[in-house]
């Protein structure tokens, strides 16, 4: 018989048996477990030990994976490059361009029979087909670039996701030792230690539990926490949250065999069928031309059918089948419910609408003027009859007008936004900021307030007991055990060793002489260190008192602020209850205390007050966290004064009665030093106009001391320090309801909130965000590490979770994870956020200057000489190449400390400031004067042949080539000016710290030289001589000198209306939606657009489509009149709304999922699917991918953005 590590290879229980067990709940589950002999017998049949766990040998682990499966849900294979190419070709714009290319090629050999215009020159006839070919080449370039971009994004996202998953570990027992293993390495038979805040990575059966409560809403939709224990409900499932307590479980199902995995497997199998049905419905709706009803029908029939739901390499992550390339914080419970869209998104939406209006107006005027001119000249003055060829003239005029509109739209802006955010996110990882939601990056640049935790964020989280009060004696150093009365000393040592999580321990450093490493809860580690300092070994006590022998454990939570453990005494001598917690709370429950020489005394009210004022408050004023340790005995026989006699088993559920009349053993003062870099970081925040508030559970004196050391409080400041109770009293009315006007009287001066609960933190954050006291509404960042911090993290504009001390639930609710739990990393996030904002502003300043000049040149040129000095192929170079390269150059600027020397922008400050508008208009004036000077007198000034009035399709002239070259050179040198947006004079500062910028600048310069000298027919250029090149460089350098003159103009004297892009999130977002196509359904405010498409949020979809369609026709039809090339192809693909239905909140109802998984009449049963939400499942629609960032399997430490 085959063996593995000396035991039979065949398990005594099958995967089918385990699945039958896991499909039950409550008493039914207990009965089912007992059918197999109980949990101990199941462990034996799985060849595992409840105390020792698995052996950990690789052979055993591999065999278990082979038999029961791995803790992964196999992802769909990534799309091949050719598949992505084919998908890119499906874009409507590209299809039109392909057709246009074919038409252009055909028309290049056709001339109307009634055309009396001069024949084309023989050479020009030979090259007439070049425009059609140029369109095809452009389509090819766009398709390949799009496909490569998608391919690289998916590949990079998967690599980043794997890195995050590798950092998610879980505590299991192997070989008798508790070890941290990657969740993907967990196998059936593993003994997992579960604790408060965990997100369970697999299904299992409880072996032992202490006051365990689980949030199963991700599977059942029920919001109430479910009590779990071995006797009433021992089944725990993957993807559920541990909200309270601790315990151990044996893993019985992993990966696709877990209950959550079964759901996703079935869901994935059903996707293709329902997608096909949805597409068919959509076709039928289109044929019927009933858009509204068809849309509803599709929505109802495909509700809850995600596209390509998949998991990455471990159970704890579900991403889109394209690698999660698009993302952002979404609505519903799973996302940031109730959040407005980001500040930058709101401003860009507003700006896009303004640009669209301005461009449309000029375009219409251009078309009207050209047509009127043509009609008057041809039919009135020359009195010619109508010819068929005149239709081409009218089409040409229309296309010129649309060209003006095309040039008006800054097409490179979305790329600049995406590049800047993606570049920043990548760099922020090196600064210990793991960005989970891309928009959080730029939002952080607008932050006006930070609500920070104390422990671990402002402090080192390396705690040490530095003072103790034992038997009415205050010790400033750790006493020796022999100096303490024996009965008191033993009780203190046992109370600390046993009444703390066994996962908290002290481990030896890697090198001899290194300080002990604190593993687990840092406060408990400090107390364990105190035991070692007394000369005792806490591990010896733990070894003789196994955790599963405890009668009851009242675990720490934010309400109790204490922990208590009921330990049975040996030989049936009763029970001892150990309690530890915040000194004020525990002392109120104490009725006795050990006095001098260990004499037991009654703990009177006067003694309590004296201890509070003489011991605890001085400790707190020194910044120490005070912890009280106490106990209580329950005895079956005769009871002493501080003991309780019992006849029957005490009612351990009556916590209030059990944890009362305690005997105080000692009070200790724990020091958690302020991080040395924090005071300077807070000073930087204050200089940057950001208010830092400290929200802590410590008492008010400790909080005041730490806040003073950090610099949050200064002696001369008139600020508020409140405890949670007083805070609630001030913000609530007589009915106990929170009133915003009352909150508005408190938060502006509040700097420290002590003894606060997570609910207090949430109320504070919500109150600040909703307040309209300040002119520019507050943008709030919050830090959190506990499970109950989730609501505050979600409500905040930016939520920071602690990567080290934070629970899985807190990380899931956050936008950014601080991998070093350090406040100074938040300051770096502010710098990067402001840098993103400035990078976008720099690109806008540069791009809008180009667009303003190009629009006016095209408009005036068309009206004055009935031709555009800038040819279509030249526009292609300006728009497609320079926009892309400029966005890359300006979006990759590194942040500087100067970013923290100004106030936040806030929600309503215009994106284009008066200074920027001054620079844009100032440079535009200079460039227009030069261009029009060259257009009208340049031929005379430079002694060259004029390009004005040239016949159609004639050879390129040096005159118009110089205009094109000078325009490009002015634009290139203005790119240097655009690097500064706040009126700085030294435009070269930091230039050579950004190699990307100057490399791209030089590449563009060299490319321009090549185009001018060798472009010829393809680019409508003629080679220039050295003198003409020097003039081009001279006019280009003039922009730098002119820029200094413009900078000297006082900005404050300019009208405020010159600022553009003022953000009004709600109203402007509504307006943007209203401008969208009818087929786009109104999005819920909770659903925020993806960062890479923020310019075109619904509002400019129709506009973009029109631009690209007309561009295609221009390239096709203009061939009849004039040899030109296509214009810019560089634009974002319009988002298509989901053909299938989804609820407006972005969640799938359990009924919807049940109908999907279990059609009426099916007998499939995979656990309960009840309630309103089933895991807030992440689902993907056709193009609006990643609508919800929650899922039902494992931690969602996902990085949801495009790279």
TrEMBL record:
Subcellular location: Cell membrane; Membrane
Protein's name according to its UniProt entry: Calcium-transporting ATPase
UniProt xrefs under PROSITE patterns: ATPASE_E1_E2
Membrane topology: Multi-pass membrane protein
Key words of the record: ATP-binding, Calcium, Calcium transport, Calmodulin-binding, Cell membrane, Ion transport, Magnesium, Membrane, Metal-binding, Nucleotide-binding, Phosphoprotein, Translocase, Transmembrane, Transmembrane helix, Transport
Regions of compositional bias (Basic residues) in chain numbering: 279-292
Molecular function GO terms recorded: ATP binding; ATP hydrolysis activity; calmodulin binding; metal ion binding; P-type calcium transporter activity
UniProt GO BP: regulation of cytosolic calcium ion concentration
UniProt biased composition (Polar residues): 299-320
Cellular component per GO, a single term: plasma membrane
Region entry Disordered, spans: 278-339
Residue ranges constituting the Cation-transporting P-type ATPase N-terminal domain according to the UniProt record: 34-109
Enzyme category, top tier: translocase
Cross-referenced Gene3D superfamilies: Calcium-transporting ATPase, cytoplasmic domain N (3.40.1110.10), Calcium-transporting ATPase, cytoplasmic transduction domain A (2.70.150.10), Calcium-transporting ATPase, transmembrane domain (1.20.1110.10), HAD superfamily/HAD-like (3.40.50.1000)
Catalytic activity: Ca(2+)(in) + ATP + H2O = Ca(2+)(out) + ADP + phosphate + H(+)
Organism: Anopheles minimus
Domain of life, per lineage: Eukaryota
Signal peptide: none
């Amino acid at each position: 018989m085959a063996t593995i590590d000396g035991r039979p290879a065949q398990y005594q229980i099958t995967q089918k048996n385990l699945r039958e067990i896991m499909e039950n709940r409550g008493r039914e589950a207990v009965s089912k477990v007992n059918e197999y002999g109980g949990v101990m017998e199941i462990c034996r049949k799985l060849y595992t030990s409840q105390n020792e766990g698995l052996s950990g040998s690789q052979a055993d682990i591999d065999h278990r994976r082979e038999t029961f499966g791995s803790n992964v849900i196999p992802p769909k294979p990534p799309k091949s490059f050719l598949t992505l190419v084919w998908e890119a070709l499906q874009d409507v714009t590209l299809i039109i361009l392909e057709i246009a290319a074919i038409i252009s090629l055909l028309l290049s050999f056709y001339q109307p029979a009634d055309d009396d215009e001069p024949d084309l020159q023989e050479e020009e006839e030979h090259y007439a087909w070049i425009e059609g070919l140029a369109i095809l080449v452009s389509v090819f370039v766009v398709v390949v670039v799009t496909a490569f971009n998608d391919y690289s994004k998916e590949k990079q996202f998967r690599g980043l996701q794997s890195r995050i998953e590798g950092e998610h570990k879980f505590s299991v027992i192997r070989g008798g030792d508790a070890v941290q293993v990657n969740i993907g390495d967990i196998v059936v038979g593993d003994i997992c230690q579960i604790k408060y805040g965990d997100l369970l990575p697999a299904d299992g059966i409880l072996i032992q539990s202490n006051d365990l409560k689980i949030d199963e809403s991700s599977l059942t939709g029920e919001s109430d926490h479910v009590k779990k224990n071995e006797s009433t409900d021992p089944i725990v499932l993957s993807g559920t949250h541990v909200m309270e307590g601790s315990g151990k479980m044996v893993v019985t199902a992993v990966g696709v065999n877990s209950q959550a995995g079964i759901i996703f497997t079935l869901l994935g199998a059903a996707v293709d069928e329902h997608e096909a049905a949805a597409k068919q419905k959509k076709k039928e709706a289109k044929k019927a031309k009933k858009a509204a009803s068809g849309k509803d029908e599709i929505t109802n029939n495909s509700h809850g059918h995600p596209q390509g739901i998949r998991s990455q390499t471990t159970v704890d992550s579900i991403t889109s089948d394209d690698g999660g390339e698009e993302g952002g914080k979404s609505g519903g419970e799973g996302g940031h419910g109730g959040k407005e869209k980001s500040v930058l998104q709101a401003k860009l939406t507003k700006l896009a609408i303004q640009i669209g209006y301005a461009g449309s107006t000029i375009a219409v005027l251009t078309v009207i003027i050209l047509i009127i001119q043509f009609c008057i000249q041809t039919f009135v003055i020359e009195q010619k009859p109508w010819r068929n060829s005149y239709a081409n003239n009218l089409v040409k005029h229309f296309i010129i007008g649309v060209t003006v509109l095309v040039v008006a739209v800054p097409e490179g802006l979305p790329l600049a936004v995406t590049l800047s955010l993606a570049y920043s996110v990548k760099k922020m990882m090196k600064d210990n900021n793991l960005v989970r939601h891309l928009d959080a990056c730029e939002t952080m640049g607008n932050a006006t307030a930070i609500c920070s935790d104390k422990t671990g964020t402002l402090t080192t989280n390396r705690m040490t007991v530095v003072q103790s009060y034992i038997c009415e004696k205050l010790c400033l150093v750790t006493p020796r055990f022999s100096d303490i009365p024996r009965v008191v000393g033993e009780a203190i040592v046992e109370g600390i060793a046993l009444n703390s999580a066994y996962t908290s321990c002290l481990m030896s450093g890697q090198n001899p002489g290194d300080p002990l490493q604190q593993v687990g809860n840092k406060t408990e580690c400090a107390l364990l260190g105190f035991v070692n300092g007394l000369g005792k070994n806490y591990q010896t006590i733990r070894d003789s008192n196994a955790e599963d022998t405890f009668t009851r454990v009242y675990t720490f939570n934010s309400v109790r602020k204490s922990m208590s453990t009921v330990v049975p005494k040996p030989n049936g001598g009763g029970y001892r209850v150990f309690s530890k917690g915040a000194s004020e709370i525990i002392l109120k429950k104490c009725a006795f205390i050990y006095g001098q020489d260990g004499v037991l005394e009654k703990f009177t009210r006067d003694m309590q007050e004296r201890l509070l004022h003489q011991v605890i408050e001085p400790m707190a004023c020194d910044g120490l966290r005070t912890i009280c340790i106490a106990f209580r005995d329950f005895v079956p026989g005769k009871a002493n004064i501080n003991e309780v006699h019992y006849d029957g088993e005490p009612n351990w559920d009556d916590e209030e009665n059990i944890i009362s009349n305690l005997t105080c053993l000692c009070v200790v003062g724990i020091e958690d030093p302020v991080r040395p870099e924090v005071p300077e970081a807070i000073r930087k925040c204050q200089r940057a106009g950001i208010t830092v508030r400290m929200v802590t559970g410590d008492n008010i004196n400790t909080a005041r001391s730490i806040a003073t050391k950090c610099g949050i409080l200064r002696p001369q400041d008139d600020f508020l320090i409140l405890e949670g109770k007083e805070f609630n009293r001030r913000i609530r009315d007589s009915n106990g309801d929170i009133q915003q006007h009352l909150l508005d009287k408190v938060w502006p001066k509040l700097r420290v909130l002590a003894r606060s609960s997570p609910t207090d933190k949430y109320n504070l954050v919500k109150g600040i965000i909703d307040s309209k006291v300040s002119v520019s509404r507050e943008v709030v960042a919050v830090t959190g590490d506990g499970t109950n911090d989730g609501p505050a993290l979600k409500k905040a504009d930016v939520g920071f979770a602690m990567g080290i001390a934070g629970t899985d639930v807190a990380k899931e609710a956050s936008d950014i994870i601080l991998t070093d739990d350090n406040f100074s990393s938040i300051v770096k996030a502010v710098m990067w956020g402001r840098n993103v904002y400035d990078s976008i502003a720099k690109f806008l300043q540069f791009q809008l200057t180009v667009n303003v000049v190009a629009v006016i040149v095209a408009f005036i040129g068309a009206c004055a000489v009935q031709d555009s000095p800038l040819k279509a192929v030249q526009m292609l170079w300006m728009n497609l190449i320079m926009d892309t390269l400029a966005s890359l150059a300006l979006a990759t600027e590194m942040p500087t400390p100067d970013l923290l020397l100004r106030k936040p922008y806030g929600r309503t400050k215009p994106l284009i400031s008066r200074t920027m508008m001054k620079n844009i208009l100032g440079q535009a004036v200079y460039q227009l004067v030069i261009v029009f000077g060259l257009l009208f007198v340049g031929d005379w000034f430079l002694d060259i042949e004029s390009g004005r009035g040239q016949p159609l399709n004639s050879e390129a002239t040096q005159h118009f080539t110089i205009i094109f070259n000078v325009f490009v050179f002015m634009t290139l040198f203005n790119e240097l000016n655009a690097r500064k947006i706040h009126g700085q004079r030294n435009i070269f500062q930091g230039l050579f710290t950004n190699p990307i910028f100057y490399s791209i600048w030089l590449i563009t310069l060299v490319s321009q030289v090549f185009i001018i000298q060798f472009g010829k027919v393809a680019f409508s250029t003629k080679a220039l001589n050295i003198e003409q090149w020097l003039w081009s460089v001279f006019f280009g350098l003039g922009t730098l000198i002119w820029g200094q003159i413009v900078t000297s103009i006082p900005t404050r004297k300019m009208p405020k209306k010159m600022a553009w892009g003022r953000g009004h999130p709600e109203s402007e977002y509504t307006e943007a939606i209203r401008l969208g196509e009818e087929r786009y359904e109104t999005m819920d405010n909770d659903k925020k657009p993806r960062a890479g498409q923020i310019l075109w949020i619904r509002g400019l979809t129709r506009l973009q489509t029109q631009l690209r369609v007309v561009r295609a026709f221009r390239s096709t039809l203009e061939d009849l009149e004039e040899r030109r090339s296509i214009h810019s192809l560089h634009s974002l693909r319009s988002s298509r709304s989901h053909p299938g239905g989804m609820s407006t909140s972005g969640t799938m109802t359990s009924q919807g999922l049940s109908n999907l998984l279990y059609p009426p009449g099916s007998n499939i049963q995979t656990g309960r699917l009840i309630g309103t939400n089933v895991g807030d499942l992440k689902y993907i629609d056709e193009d609006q991918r990643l609508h919800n960032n929650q899922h039902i399997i494992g931690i969602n430490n996902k990085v949801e953005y495009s790279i």
